[in-house]
C-alpha cells in the first residue's frame, strides 16, 4: 500500500474501479425480478411467519447470485455484438473494464454459491429449481436466445422458476391459478420486452438482438395481447372462486380492478417502446407503482381472508 492512495485499492487488494465494474456487470438493478420468490408466501398469507420469511430471503439471495452468474456469461457471449450497440457498448465486459476470464470465473463462483446458499435450507427442491434455472439460462445464452418463439419461452421460464422457487423454499404448495397467472404473466412481460426492442431496431443497427428482427410487430402484439388476456382471465377466475367460497364480495374480487389496470398501464409502456427493460418501467412509472401498491394491499387482505 506504500506510495499508493488507499482510496484506489479495495479491501481485497483489487483496484476499486475494477471491483465496481465487476459489481455493475452482475446487474444488481435487475435483482428486482427476484422479488417473485415472495409471491407464493404472500399468496398463502404466510410471509410474516418467521420461518417462511427466512426461507424466502434465502431463496431471494440465492436467485440474486444465480441470475448474476447468468448475466455475466450472457455478456461475455454477447460482448462483440454489444460493442455495436449504442447503449450496451458501455457494459463493463463490452467496454473492456472486466475481462471475459474474470467474468466467467466469477460466474462459476456465483453459480456454485447460489446452489450452496439454497442448500442451506436443507431443501433439495430449492436446489433443484436453482439448478434448472441455471441450466435454462445457460442454454438460452448459448443459442436459444437467437431462436424466435423459443427465446420467449426460455426467458418466461426464468420468471416462472423464480415464482416456483418461493414455494420450493418454504414448502408451500402452488395452486393451479398461481401457476397459470405466473406463466402467462411472465410471457406477457417477455413478449412486451421484445416488442419494445423491435420498435428501436432501426436505431440500434447491427447491435440489435438477432431474434428480434425475425419477429413482426403484429406478431409480438398478438403474443402479448393473448398472454395479457390469459393472465387477467386466470386471475379473475381465482378471485371469483375465493368470492364464491366466502358468499360475499371479497377483497380478492376487488383486487381484480387494480390488477387489470396495472396490466393496462404496463401495456401503455410496451406500446410506446419503453418496456425493453421492465425493471426500469417499474422503477420509473409512478402511476404503475400506485396501482401496484393498491393491488398489493387488496391482495394481502384477500390472502388473509379479511
Distance between the termini: 61 Å
Helix/sheet category:
mainly alpha
How does the overall form come out from the CA principal axes?
A: globular
Task: Please report which band the strand proportion falls in: under 5%, 5-15%, 15-25%, 25-35%, 35-45% or over 45%.
Answer: under 5%
Order of helical and strand elements: HHHHHHHHHHHHHHH
Mean pLDDT: 85
Task: Report the radius of gyration as a whole number of Å.
Answer: 21 Å
Main pleated sheet: none
Helical content (DSSP H or I, runs of 4+) = 55-70%
Low-confidence segments, given as residue ranges, are 1-14
Please describe what this structure looks like.
By secondary structure, the protein is an all-alpha fold. 70% of the residues lie in helices and 0% in strands. It has 15 helices and no strands. The chain has helices spanning 16-25, 39-43, 50-77, 79-82, 92-95, 100-119, 124-141, 150-170, 176-199, 201-204, 217-246, 251-254, 256-271, 278-284, 286-303. Helix 9 (176-199) runs antiparallel to helix 11 (217-246). The longest helix has 30 residues, at 217-246.
Descriptors:
306 residues, mainly alpha, disordered N terminus
Chart the SSEs and their pairings.
Elements: H1 16-25, H2 39-43, H3 50-77, H4 79-82, H5 92-95, H6 100-119, H7 124-141, H8 150-170, H9 176-199, H10 201-204, H11 217-246, H12 251-254, H13 256-271, H14 278-284, H15 286-303
Amino acid at each position: 500500500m506504500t506510495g499508493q492512495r488507499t482510496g484506489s485499492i479495495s479491501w481485497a487488494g483489487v483496484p476499486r474501479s475494477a471491483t465496481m465494474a465487476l459489481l455493475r456487470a452482475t446487474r444488481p438493478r435487475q435483482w428486482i425480478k427476484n422479488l417473485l420468490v415472495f409471491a407464493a408466501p404472500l399468496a398463502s398469507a404466510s410471509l410474516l411467519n418467521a420461518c417462511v420469511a427466512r426461507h424466502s430471503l434465502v431463496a431471494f439471495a440465492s436467485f440474486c447470485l444465480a441470475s448474476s452468474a447468468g448475466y455475466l456469461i450472457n455478456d461475455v457471449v454477447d460482448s462483440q455484438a454489444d460493442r455495436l450497440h449504442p447503449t450496451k457498448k458501455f457494459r463493463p465486459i463490452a467496454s473492456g473494464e472486466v475481462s471475459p476470464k474474470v467474468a466467467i470465473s466469477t460466474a462459476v463462483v456465483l453459480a456454485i454459491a447460489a446452489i450452496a446458499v439454497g442448500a442451506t435450507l436443507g431443501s433439495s427442491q430449492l436446489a433443484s429449481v436453482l439448478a434448472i434455472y441455471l441450466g435454462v439460462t445457460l442454454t438460452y445464452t448459448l443459442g436459444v436466445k437467437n431462436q424466435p418463439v423459443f427465446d420467449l419461452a426460455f426467458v418466461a421460464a426464468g420468471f416462472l422458476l423464480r415464482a416456483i422457487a418461493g414455494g420450493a423454499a418454504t414448502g408451500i404448495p402452488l395452486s393451479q391459478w398461481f401457476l397459470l397467472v405466473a406463466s402467462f404473466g411472465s410471457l406477457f412481460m417477455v413478449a412486451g420486452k421484445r416488442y419494445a426492442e423491435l420498435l428501436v431496431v432501426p436505431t440500434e443497427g447491427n447491435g440489435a438482438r438477432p431474434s428480434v428482427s425475425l419477429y413482426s410487430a403484429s406478431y409480438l402484439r398478438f403474443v402479448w395481447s393473448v398472454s395479457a388476456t390469459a393472465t387477467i382471465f386466470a386471475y379473475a377466475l381465482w378471485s371469483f372462486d375465493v368470492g364464491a367460497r366466502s358468499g360475499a364480495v371479497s377483497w380478492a374480487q376487488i383486487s381484480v380492478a387494480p390488477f387489470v389496470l396495472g396490466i393496462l398501464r404496463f401495456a401503455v409502456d410496451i406500446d410506446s417502446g419503453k418496456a425493453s427493460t421492465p425493471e426500469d418501467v417499474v422503477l420509473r412509472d409512478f402511476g404503475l407503482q400506485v396501482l401496484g401498491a393498491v393491488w398489493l394491499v387488496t391482495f394481502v387482505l384477500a390472502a388473509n381472508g379479511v
